[in-house]
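Because discrete structure vocabularies remain unfamiliar, we reproduce here a specimen of the format, pairing a chain with its fold in token form:
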Amino acid sequence: MEPLTQFSSILLVEILGFDLNVWFLFLVVGTQKVKDALEREKSAHLIVISEAKKWEEHLRKALGVEKECVLDLEKVVRKMRSEHANIKFFAESKLAEANALVASIEEKSLEVEAKLRSVNAKLAEISIKSSEIDKKSHDLESQKALLRRDCLSLIAEQEAHESTLSKQGDDLREWERNCRRGKRG
């Protein structure tokens, strides 16, 4: 303390009529209270620092766990993206194959339709030819039946002529025999 300040304090004490012992006791008690409060503050501060260090340790551990989780999640995301890319590539490849197959099937379908139209046209032509053949076959059967009748008629006529010729031959032989007998006798 500076001398002027000490003098002022003493002068103040004398003016106010304080007893120095009371004043000293007042200062000691006040100082002790301040010291006690400071000790309590230090203890509280040490407790707060200890708690803060505990929290800091917990937060560091949590941060470490969180970093591990983030790394694991990043690995999973990379793996999922890779799988997604593979699936997308596979799906696009299969889609391209399916589109090519559909195009091929459509082309084959058009070819089959063209062949089917050609077959239907040929079937119609065959049906017409078959009808013509059936008509000609019927005509031939009719002609065949007429020829059979004519043939049977000719055979009957031939048999009749042969029978007549045979009878005439028999008559002629009989006449010749009679003629030979008549010349002899």
Remarks:
- Residues 21 and 41 are 29 Å apart (CA to CA).
- The two ends are 221 Å apart (CA to CA).
